[in-house]
Amino acid sequence: MDLEASTAPDEAPAEPAPGEIGLGRFPLVVGRRAVGLLIAFGERPPLSGAEQRTLTAFGDQLALVLERDRLLRTSADRQREGQAGTTG
pTM (2 decimals)? Predict the structure, then answer.
């Protein structure tokens, strides 16, 4: 699964699908860098303050995981490039 592609904020639907109720949009941010957007949809009452805080906390942790994944992939790519340069 490509996490970056599946969580890109600009790819998120602007509005809920027909028959769905948008419950909330929670930006996934690390520092000043947006790494995704968590969108909650469903047919239920609006989120309570506690539910919003819980989803925000979950989103904060998810953002850190996504950033860590990006950094690990960047590091691995650079290592492969470095190894390719020394063997060629």
Answer: 0.66
